């Protein structure tokens, strides 16, 4: 018997209409760069979030090579009312990967748009097409022996700076807040026009990648976590390789020590003694990177605290583990290190540096790599901890105050426990804020566990919101609900912008809960 | 079958070199099926289970194929990316009728590996998610028309040997009839990974491979199970 021709269809579009649109797409990008076979589309639908693939099924994928092709694609999309879900490389693991928020939305895969247009060493910036990966850039920097560092998120080698920045992802060097260091975009609007933001709007300007604001309303922000345009090029700043780099680890023995840890870091971070986005991971995060859950606990429900504590003691992990670094000239680093070491030792932490740490310790090594922009895949080992391919990130934002931590930790742990899930967490310390990153690991092969993960996330979202904590980013499974948390007025403004810029709703329907 | 971690790079590079210079007939990563050329690449994670599975799969598919290690490290991703791109580019030039990449890796490695398949527009033949926890194991297959029914075939092999296995299958071609027949062994039962290698081998290998389903021996211990298996057509 024949296989199904399309895995899904856009809403209100017949198979015949869709087939005609596909032919037009093929005329634009070439036959091989439009795929609709369910066997090929399947790799766009591999999910880790707690929802079935059926809810996020695209009818096909398009792979343009140029901005002009993207412009022509949106014209066909408008003609046939076919929505597209732009991805740069589609490695948004735990947030929906490459699959669209809504079934029937074609994937607009920009990975063939992978030119590194400019890397400027003197001014420390890069301008790249949307499909350029961190690995490509790392290779470029190495090949040309440039004194520059990248700042990368967890799936660094395969992910793209554009995709991560547009989702407002973070890394671990002093340039860790990626959108903060973004400068200039090229955006294909839904009407086919090309907008260059900031100074890029000016003919012959050479300041597109050095001055963020341009003139008039600052627009770059509305193209992040949104569906108002298709970003085809992006500029961002690169850090000059510092003459000295001193990573360090501070271990705290007790769970309550998180208060002290954060209150020790905050003044150092706020006053730019510690300049990078340091992390404070709990012992179960450390264990989850290196161990399998069944080797620690084989019983029902959440892993008991005493077992975690015992395992952490055996492995030499702290209840909380601060990873941060100093950057600068040797003299600066030496001077700052005296302040940092003194502060952490006075707080009761066990301070370790490269001189003390085991260089073969995988936990230490991957942090040393990531805080210096070196590509690492080590953190992916989290996915081996529980098994079953389920992972989704719950990441509320709070003030960088110790008093915020125990409250959040206890709330999260209680709710996760109600659903039999473990508290695998870290805090990322910004200038004044913290991202509380919780990796909800669950087994997608157990329908009840997947449902529990969904229900747990839902409860976390709402109970944290009731306490005043909103999440900074979410998966395609929770975009509507998260948007609702932020209120009607914001949602109405978002929708009004959508109606103005994309009246047919062809770009990423449902992204961040925005749809018409 | 040589799947030592140390030789991953060498094998991978050698495989590419052979493919590039001599074509499929002399390549260690090819199988001749009658007069039609079929190329098979086996890819396994670093642990013992992956190694055994890849070895079994090679035998089951009657494939004198070499295996490659892949454990999700940065350098390995690059090698696999290059290998896949080379295979995709050379398929028609080499006159290869069918070209598969198949294997078993850890869950962390597979999450990235799948995106590499996507980048070369590889076509899914079958994908399996295999988990064991607290004595219960689950196997979840995503199949296509040529592999519809693989879950049933696999489950029937496990009937007597594993008490608490759940096997589910979702077929992308829901109107396709199962094409694989379930075979039961009357003697010793296979481990789940031996069984998996057999049913996958029946997809990859020449006709008659199913006979190999009989007479398998069960190994003493299966160890932890948290893997993803796959066959893609490249």
Task: Characterize this entry briefly.
Chain A has 516 residues and is α+β, with helices and mostly antiparallel strands.
Helix tally of chain A? 16
Major sheet of chain B, described briefly? 8 strands, mixed
**Biggest interface, chains and residue tallies:** A-B, 49 and 48 residues
Looking at CATH, which topology of the largest domain in chain A would you report? Vanillyl-alcohol Oxidase, Chain A, domain 3
**β-sheet strand percentage of chain B:** 25-35%
Give the helix level of chain A as a range of percent. Answer: 25-40%
What gap, in angstroms, lies between the N and C termini of chain B?
Answer: 22 Å
Characterize the structure shown.
The complex is a heterodimer of chains A (516) and B (234). The longest helix of chain A has 20 residues. In chain A, the strands form four sheets. In chain A, strands 12, 13, 14, 15, 16, 17, 18 and 19 form an eight-stranded antiparallel sheet that branches. In chain A, strands 5-6-10-8-9 form a five-stranded antiparallel sheet. Chain A has a four-stranded mixed sheet with strand order 1-2-4-3. Chain A has three domains: 98 residues, 2-Layer Sandwich (Uridine Diphospho-n-acetylenolpyruvylglucosamine Reductase, domain 2); 125 residues, Uridine Diphospho-n-acetylenolpyruvylglucosamine Reductase, domain 3 (2-Layer Sandwich), CATH 3.30.465; 223 residues, FAD-linked oxidases, C-terminal domain (Vanillyl-alcohol Oxidase, Chain A, domain 3, 3-Layer(aba) Sandwich), CATH 3.40.462.10. Chain A has 516 residues and is an alpha+beta fold. Chain B has 234 residues and is of the alpha/beta class. Chain B has one domain. Chain B is built from six helices and eight strands, in the order αββαβαβαββαβαβ. In chain B, strands 1, 2, 3, 4, 5, 6, 7 and 8 form an eight-stranded mixed sheet that branches. In chain B, α1 runs parallel beside α3. At the A-B interface, α2, α8 and α12 of A face α3, α4, β5, β6 and β8 of B.
């Amino acid at each position: 018997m024949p296989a199904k021709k399309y895995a899904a269809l856009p809403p209100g579009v017949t198979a015949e209409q869709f087939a005609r649109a596909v032919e037009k797409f093929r005329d634009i990008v070439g036959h091989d760069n439009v795929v609709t076979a369910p066997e090929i589309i399947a790799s766009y639908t591999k999910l880790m979030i707690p929802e079935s693939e059926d809810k996020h099924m695209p009818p096909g994928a398009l792979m343009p090579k140029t901005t002009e092709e993207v412009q022509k694609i949106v014209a066909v999309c408008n003609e046939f009312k076919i929505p597209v879900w732009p991805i740069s490389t589609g490695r948004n693991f735990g947030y929906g990967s490459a699959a669209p928020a809504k079934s029937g939305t074609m994937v607009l895969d920009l990975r063939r748009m992978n030119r590194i247009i400019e890397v400027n060493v003197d001014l420390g910036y890069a301008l790249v097409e949307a499909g350029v990966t961190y690995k490509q850039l790392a290779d470029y920097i190495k090949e040309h022996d440039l004194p520059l560092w990248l700042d990368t998120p967890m799936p660094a080698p395969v992910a793209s700076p554009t995709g991560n920045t547009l989702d407002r992802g973070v890394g671990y060097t002093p340039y860790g807040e990626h959108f903060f260091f973004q400068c200039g975009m090229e955006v294909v609007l839904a009407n086919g026009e090309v907008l260059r933001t900031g100074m890029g709007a000016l003919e012959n300007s050479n300041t597109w990648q050095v001055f963020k604001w341009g003139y008039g309303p600052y627009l770059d922000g509305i193209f992040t976590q949104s569906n108002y345009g298709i970003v085809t090029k992006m500029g961002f700043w690169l850090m000059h390789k510092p003459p000295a780099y001193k990573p360090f680890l501070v271990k705290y023995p007790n769970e309550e020590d998180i208060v002290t840890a954060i209150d020790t870091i905050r003044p150092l971070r706020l006053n730019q003694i510690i300049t990078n986005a340091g992390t404070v991971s709990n012992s179960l995060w450390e264990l989850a990177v290196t161990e399998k859950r069944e080797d620690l606990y084989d019983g029902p429900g959440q892993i008991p605290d005493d077992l975690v504590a015992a395992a952490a003691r055996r492995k030499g992990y702290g209840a909380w583990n601060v990873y941060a670094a100093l950057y600068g000239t040797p003299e600066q680093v030496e001077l700052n290190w005296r302040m940092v070491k003194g502060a952490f030792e006075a707080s009761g932490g066990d301070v370790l540096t490269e001189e003390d740490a085991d260089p073969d310790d995988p936990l230490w090594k991957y942090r040393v790599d990531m805080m210096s922009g070196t590509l690492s895949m080590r953190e992916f080992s989290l996915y081996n901890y529980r098994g079953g391919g389920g992972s989704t990130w719950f990441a509320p934002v709070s003030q960088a105050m110790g008093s915020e931590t125990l409250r959040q930790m206890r709330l999260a742990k209680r709710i996760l426990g109600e659903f039999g899930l473990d508290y695998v967490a870290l805090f990322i310390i910004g200038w004044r804020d913290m991202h509380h990153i919780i990796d909800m690991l669950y087994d997608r092969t157990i329908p009840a566990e997947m449902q529990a993960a969904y229900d747990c996330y839902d409860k976390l979202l709402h109970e944290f919101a009731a306490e005043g904590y909103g999440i900074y980013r979410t998966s395609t499974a929770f975009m509507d609900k998260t948007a609702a948390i932020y209120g009607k007025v914001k949602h109405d403004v978002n929708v009004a912008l959508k109606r103005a810029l994309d009246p047919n709703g062809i770009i990423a329907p449902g992204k961040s809960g925005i749809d018409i | 079958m040589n799947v030592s971690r140390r030789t991953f790079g060498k094998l991978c590079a050698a495989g590419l070199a052979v493919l590039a210079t001599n074509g499929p007939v002399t390549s260690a990563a090819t199988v001749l099926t009658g007069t039609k050329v079929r190329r098979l690449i086996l890819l396994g994670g670093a642990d013992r289970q992956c190694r055994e599975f890849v070895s079994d799969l090679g035998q089951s598919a009657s494939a004198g194929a070499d295996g490659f290690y892949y454990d999700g490290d940065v350098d390995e991703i690059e090698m696999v990316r290059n290998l896949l791109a080379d295979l995709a580019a050379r398929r028609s030039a080499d006159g290869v009728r069918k070209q598969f990449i198949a294997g078993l890796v850890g869950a962390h490695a597979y999450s990235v590996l799948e995106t590499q398949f996507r980048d070369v527009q590889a076509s899914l033949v079958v994908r399996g998610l295999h988990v064991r926890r607290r004595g219960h194991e689950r196997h979840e297959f995503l199949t296509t028309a040529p592999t519809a029914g693989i879950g049933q075939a696999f489950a029937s092999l496990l009937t007597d040997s594993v008490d608490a296995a759940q096997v589910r299958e979702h077929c992308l071609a829901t109107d396709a009839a199962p094409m694989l027949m379930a075979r039961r062994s009357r003697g010793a039962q296979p481990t789940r990974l031996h069984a998996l290698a057999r049913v996958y081998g029946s997809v990859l290998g020449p006709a008659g491979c199913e006979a190999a389903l009989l007479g398998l021996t069960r190994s003493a211990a299966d160890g932890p199970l948290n893997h993803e298996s796959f066959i893609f057509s490249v």
